[in-house]
Design a protein that fits this description.
The structure holds two protein chains of two kinds. Chain A is mainly alpha-helical. In chain A, about 75% of the residues lie in helices and about 0% in strands. Classes of the chains: A mainly alpha, B mainly alpha.
Chain lengths: ~290, ~280
C-alpha cells in the first residue's frame, strides 16, 4: 500500500478502533480477568494469581447450572415459537402480497418499535392480579376471585418474550423468502411437485438462512434476559441473567458474577459460531 | 402462481390483532378516570397527562434520555462513517478482526456487556453518570450504523470518487464534497437507528447509570409502584406517539436511501438486542 494511502486509512480507522478497544474489548477482557480471581478481597492486579476457583464454584453449584439450562431452554422455546408464529406471516407477505408488502410490514413492525419496557408493562397490566384480564372476568361474573397463576410465572415470561420478538423475526425470513428465485419454484411445479412438496423441499430449505438468523437474533437477547423476568416472572421465573445481575448488585460477588457472565458469553459465541455457516445475522441489517 | 386462500390472510390479521391488543389496552388506561387499572372503565380524563407534565423527575429523565440518545448516536455515526469508508475502500490487515469486534454487541447478551462495562468503569475510576450510559450506547449503536453505511457505500459507483480526484480534488475534499453528500441519507438513517436503540435501551443503562436516570430507568423504577402507574402509562402513550413519528420518518428515509429498490427493502431490522 502506498504511504499516502496508508495515512488515509489510519486517519479513518484509528478513532473507531480506539473507541471499540476502550469501551468494548478492554471491558470484556477485564471481565475475563476478573473471573480468574480467587475472591472478592485484595488489590486488583498486585495480588492477582489466576485461579479457576470461581469456575469450580460455578460448576459445583447445581442451582447455577439448572438456571443456565433453564434459561437456554426458555430462550430456545421463545426463539422457536416466535419463528413459527412469524413464518406464515412472512410467507403470506412475500408470496401473496408481494408488491404492496411494504405497508403490511410497517403494520407488523409498529408494535416492535414501541418501547420494550412498555410492551412488557402492557402484559403486566393485562395479566396481573389486579389486571385487565382478571378484572374483566370478575366484572363479567365469570370468576369470583382473581386468578394469580396468570402472572409471576415462567409462563408469563415466555408469553411476554414471544410477544416482544415475533414481529422482529419476520424480517430476516421475509428477506430470504424474497430472494428466492421464482424460476426454482416454477421448475419444481413443472417437474411434478405438489404445492406441499414444493414448500417442504424447495421453499423452506431455501429460506433456512433467514429462519436461523431470526432465531439466533431472538435467542441471544433472550438467554441473557434479566429485565423481563424481574418484571413479570416473580421468584419462580428468574433466569440466569438475574443471578449475574445480582452478583454485581446486591450480593456483590464480582469474581463469581464475572465467571457466570463469561460462561454465558462463551455459550452465545459458540452458538453464533455454530450457525454462522448457514446464516449470519449481520447480513440482515443495513 | 399464488393460490388464493383465506387461511394466510386471516392468520396475518389475527396475529396483528394480538400484537396490537396489549398496546391498545395500555392506551385505554391512559385516558381512564381511575387510579387503578381495572375494568370496567370509568370515564375519559386527561388528568394523567396533566400530572405527567407536572412530574419533574419524569420530564427530567425524558430530557436525559434525549441528550444521551442524541450524543451517543452522533458519536456512533461519526465513528461508523469513518469505519465504513475504511472498511469498504481499503484493504488492510486486521480487517476481519475489526468487523468481528464491531459486530460483537449484536452477539453478546446485554447483561454481559453491562457488567463488563460496570467492572471497567469502576476499575479505571470513572464515576457513573449520563456520560457513561452514552459511552455504552455508542458501542451498542455502532454496529447498526456501520452496517447501514457499508450497505450504502458498497452500492455506489467508485468512479465518482476517481473523477473528483482526477479533476483536482484531494482525498479529503473528495470525501467531504462527493462521498459524504452521496451517503448522507444513509448517515441519517444510521444515526436515527442508533438514536432509537439508545433511547429504548435499559439493560445496560440500568448498570452504568449514575444519579440521573434515563427514561427507561425511571420507568422501571416506577413500574413497581402501582399508584403511579396511570401517569407512567400516559407517558407510555406519549412515547409511542414520538417513537411512531421517528419510525415513519425512518421508513420514508429508507425508501429514499434505497430508492429504485423494491418495497421490500424499505424496512430493515430495527434495534435488536434489547434484553
Amino acid at each position: 500500500m502506498p504511504r499516502q494511502s496508508r495515512g488515509r486509512l489510519w486517519a479513518l480507522i484509528a478513532a473507531p478502533s480506539l473507541w471499540l478497544v476502550l469501551f468494548l474489548v478492554l471491558p470484556l477482557l477485564l471481565l475475563a480477568a476478573y473471573s480468574f480471581r480467587a475472591g472478592v478481597g485484595g488489590a486488583l492486579f498486585r495480588d492477582w494469581t489466576p485461579t479457576l476457583e470461581q469456575y469450580r464454584i460455578l460448576f459445583a453449584t447445581p442451582a447455577f447450572l439448572r438456571l443456565l439450562v433453564m434459561s437456554a431452554g426458555i430462550a430456545l422455546v421463545v426463539a422457536v415459537l416466535a419463528t413459527l408464529l412469524a413464518y406464515p406471516v412472512a410467507y403470506y407477505l412475500v408470496f401473496r402480497i408481494r408488491e404492496r408488502a411494504g405497508v403490511y410490514i410497517v403494520l407488523l413492525m409498529i408494535p416492535f418499535w414501541i418501547s420494550y419496557l412498555l410492551r412488557v408493562m402492557a402484559w403486566k397490566v393485562i395479566l396481573g392480579e389486579g389486571g385487565a384480564v382478571n378484572s374483566l372476568l370478575l366484572s363479567l361474573g365469570l370468576i369470583h376471585e382473581p386468578i394469580s397463576a396468570l402472572f409471576y410465572s415462567r409462563l408469563a415470561v415466555i408469553v411476554t418474550l414471544v410477544y416482544v420478538w415475533t414481529p422482529f423475526v419476520a424480517l430476516p425470513i421475509i428477506a430470504t423468502l424474497y430472494r428466492i428465485d421464482r424460476a426454482l419454484l416454477e421448475a419444481a411445479s413443472s417437474l411434478g411437485a405438489t404445492p406441499r412438496q414444493r414448500f417442504w423441499r424447495v421453499t423452506l430449505p431455501l429460506s433456512l438462512p433467514g429462519v436461523i438468523a431470526g432465531a439466533v437474533m431472538v435467542f441471544i437477547p433472550t438467554v441473557g434476559e434479566y429485565v423481563t423476568p424481574s418484571l413479570v416472572g416473580g421468584s419462580s421465573g428468574a433466569m440466569y441473567g438475574n443471578i449475574i445481575f445480582d452478583f454485581f448488585g446486591r450480593s456483590a460477588n464480582w469474581p463469581l458474577g464475572a465467571a457466570l457472565a463469561v460462561v454465558m458469553l462463551l455459550l452465545t459465541l459458540a452458538l453464533v459460531g455454530a450457525t454462522s455457516r448457514i446464516s449470519r445475522v449481520e447480513r440482515f441489517i443495513g | 402462481m399464488p393460490r388464493r386462500g383465506w387461511v394466510l390472510p386471516s392468520y396475518y390479521w389475527a396475529l396483528l390483532a394480538l400484537l396490537y391488543l396489549p398496546i391498545l389496552v395500555l392506551l385505554l388506561f391512559a385516558f381512564n378516570d381511575s387510579p387503578i387499572l381495572v375494568f370496567p372503565l370509568r370515564g375519559f380524563t386527561l388528568q394523567w397527562f396533566r400530572e405527567l407534565f407536572a412530574t419533574e423527575a419524569l420530564m427530567r429523565s425524558l430530557r436525559n434520555s434525549i441528550v444521551v440518545a442524541a450524543g451517543s448516536s452522533m458519536v456512533a455515526t461519526a465513528l461508523a462513517t469513518a469505519g465504513a469508508i475504511a472498511f469498504v475502500r481499503f484493504e488492510f490487515r486486521g480487517k476481519g478482526l475489526f468487523m468481528t469486534v464491531a459486530l460483537l454487541p449484536l452477539y453478546v447478551p446485554f447483561v454481559v456487556l453491562g457488567v463488563a462495562l460496570l467492572l471497567w468503569l469502576s476499575t479505571i475510576g470513572v464515576p457513573r453518570s449520563l456520560l457513561t450510559i452514552a459511552a455504552a450506547h455508542t458501542v451498542v449503536g455502532f454496529p447498526y450504523a456501520l452496517l447501514i453505511l457499508i450497505a450504502r457505500l458498497v452500492g455506489f459507483d467508485r468512479h465518482l470518487e476517481e473523477a473528483a480526484m482526477n479533476l483536482g480534488a484531494n482525498y479529503w475534499q473528495t470525501l467531504r464534497r462527493v462521498v459524504l453528500p452521496l451517503i448522507a441519507p444513509a448517515i441519517f438513517a444510521g444515526w436515527l437507528t442508533a438514536f432509537t436503540v439508545s433511547f429504548d435501551e435499559f439493560a445496560i443503562a440500568n448498570m452504568v447509570v449514575g444519579r440521573e436516570p434515563t427514561l427507561p430507568v425511571y420507568l422501571y423504577s416506577q413500574l413497581r409502584m402501582t399508584a403511579r402507574l396511570p401517569r407512567v402509562i400516559a407517558m407510555a402513550a406519549l412515547i409511542m406517539a414520538i417513537t411512531l413519528t421517528i419510525f415513519f420518518a425512518l421508513v420514508w428515509l429508507r425508501r429514499r436511501v434505497f430508492s429504485g429498490g423494491r418495497a421490500m427493502r424499505a424496512i430493515r431490522p430495527g434495534p435488536a438486542g434489547l434484553g
